[in-house]
Amino acid sequence: MTQLPTPRELLDACKSMPALRTAIVHPVKANAIESAFDAATEGLIEPVLVGPEVRIREAADEAGVDIRGWPLHDVEHSHAAAEHACALAVQGEVQALMKGSLHTDELLAAVIAARSLRTERRMSHVYAFIDAAYHKPFFITDGVINLTPTLVEKADIVRNAVYLFKALNGTDAIAKVAVVAAVETVNPDMPSTIDAACLSKMAQRGQIEGALIDGPLAFDNAISRAAADEKGIVSDVAGDADVLLMPNLEAGNMMAKQLIFLGNAEAAGLVLGARIPIILTSRADSRLTRLMSCALAVRVANARQQGMFS
After folding, report:
1. Which structural domain, as residue segments, surrounds residue 108?
2. What is the arithmetic mean of pLDDT over 23-27?
3. CB proximity list for 96: less than 8 A, separation 6 or greater
4. Which residue of 31, 83, 140, 204 shows the fewest CB atoms closer than 10 Å?
5. pTM, two decimal places
6. What is the CATH number of the domain that holds 2?
């Protein structure tokens, strides 16, 4: 088996890259301040706090973090914090957004409303995993944002994952994308299998670039060459997938959390499809997950700054 990179190696790979000036949106709980402090200590971000000043300072006191050197924009509540953070991004004052103590939909609604932060693509979330049971890092998408994506939306979700893959591996890298379903054959009664077949053909015809896509593939076939061989599946993706495109949010979310909480996989997550990376953190996330998520944002921003993407 190929030697897997360690989380420490992934964090250290960012040391040569400039820290991201990052708006921490509504960080009114101690864990949000702690996350910003940890990422700043690692040299990943330069925090800009956006939210009610009194509550932010109370959270910092609870966390035992000295925030006197951090810019603080005092706004009244979480909705205002999201809107103001997006305005800072539009003005070029920050290069990334990081979710604090507010709902994900509040933050993303503000991003959508700030038209100059949007791209032609639908936004989606990508989980990145390092799992000792698999021979290389891989992505799962989308388990956070898109509930029941259409074929067109799934194409954008793939494009976002490919964007992240190339930011980490170079513009010439080709992502192997497994479109996951419950079965590996097209079944008219299972729409996810039809979408999988269409996405595969779209990649062949150049409608989705930078990816080798195959599907439908059941999860075992997507990650196990032996399972694929047993079923007679001839595929360059089966058993060697870089990206697992899930049929819907429920499947993606449950799969990701199973890997984290039962499989002890190391994880990170990022929202893509906007003009800046968006770091989503959860109270249940480990310190390492939060740091690795910031590292992903640094890598994406650096790739863009280096001209890898237009």
Report:
1. 1-118+274-310
2. 97
3. 20, 21, 22, 23, 45, 89, 276, 277, 278, 279, 297, 301
4. 204
5. 0.93
6. 3.40.50.10950
